[in-house]
Amino acid sequence: MTRVLVAGIGNLFFGDDGFGVELARRLAASPPPRARVVDYGIRAVHLAYELLEPLDLLVVADCVSRGGAPGSLYLIEPDGDELAGGATGDAHGMNLPIVFATVRELGGALPPTFVVGCEPETLDLGMGLSAAVAGVLPAAADLVRELIASRP
Question: What pTM value is reported for the model?
Answer without folding.
Answer: 0.89
